[in-house]
Amino acid sequence: MTKNASYILEMINNSHSHLTAEQIYLQLKEKNQAVVLSTVYNNLSYLYQEGLIRKIPVEGYPDRYDKILRHDHLVCRKCGQLSDILLEDLTEKLQNQLGISMLSYDLKIHYICEACQKKENEGEDS
Amino acid sequence: MTKNASYILEMINNSHSHLTAEQIYLQLKEKNQAVVLSTVYNNLSYLYQEGLIRKIPVEGYPDRYDKILRHDHLVCRKCGQLSDILLEDLTEKLQNQLGISMLSYDLKIHYICEACQKKENEGEDS
DNA sequence: TGTTAAAATTAGAATGATTCTAATTTTAAC
DNA sequence: GTTAAAATTAGAATCATTCTAATTTTAACA
Asked: Per CA to C1' distance, which residue is closest to D15?
């Protein structure tokens, strides 16, 4: 693992948000660890393929990268905002229902976040 | 709902695969119901926002569209192939664990499909 | 039936995320 | 120190998707 890769891995593991490739790129720049955007993508691909990070696609938004540590996600239908939530671990239950061997699972709960709900209500007022 | 929208909705509901916008566009062309690609996107956005279809983002592949009828998905880590699987309905269980109101959930099981497993094994031989 | 306004569609440009390519630099082993 | 492999860079290219403005269709109404 190269210095850049391990630095990016560390960033993702220490972050409490769900970084996009670009956010990682910008953070690196700020910390004077500047690299080029394609290097960030390269390293993210590498880390993902090695199973060291999670990659979370959300409809209509750039992919986000997340630590492996098991947890689930809430996604706002309106704005795509992503947040963490820890629900009951389903690994065993799912594995029992499947005939095949599961690498992992990805559970997203769709909802409307508070901010968007507020906006909706305001819209109704006028 | 316009003719195009309902036609596209019907296509999705009758399809056993998970169509991309482009596949829908090509199928329409074949059936002499030709429209332009942006119309397909417009209608898909509309149908999705109305909650009449599902939109499935898969890392590194174009979005796919699916019928609403509850079911879960298997995704191949290697090739992105998507297939249906019907697992125990988690709606109630999840709703109980959440404080908020859930619109829906999206469960993806990651695995390596047969074709990719075969390829991997062949690779090892040589 | 002709008129009109709204909605849908078209064509194609624009955007944004991501990948690719070729050249250059870094790394690490000999 | 030399060399080969791997990583990085710079920027072009690609692909999916959205946007814009012009045109067409639709459907209600005069």
From this structure: B62
Residues of B in Cβ contact (< 8 Å) with A74: 100
A5 touches strand D (CB under 7 A): yes
Q: Where are the alpha helices (DSSP H) in chain A?
A: 3-14, 21-30, 37-49, 91-97, 114-125
Protein CA at A25 to nucleotide C1' at C12, angstroms: 33
Residue A88 C-alpha, separation from nearest chain B C-alpha, in angstroms: 8
Q: Which of B68, B81, B106 is most worth mutating to test chain A (most A CB atoms within 10 A of its CB)?
A: B106
Both tokens assigned to A82: 């992503």
DSSP code, position A102? P
The size of the A-B interface in CB pairs under 8 A is 68
What CA–CA distance (Å, rounded) separates B18 from A125?
39
All domains of chain B, ordered by start, with CATH?
1-68 (1.10.10.10), 70-126 (3.30.1490.190)
State how far the Cα of A22 lies from the Cα of A24, in Å rounded to an integer: 5
pLDDT in tens, chain A (126 residues): 899 999 999 999 999 989 999 999 999 999 988 899 999 999 999 999 899 999 998 888 899 999 999 999 999 887 888 999 999 999 999 999 998 999 999 999 999 898 888 877 765 543
* Beta bridge partners of residue B106, listed in sequence order: A108
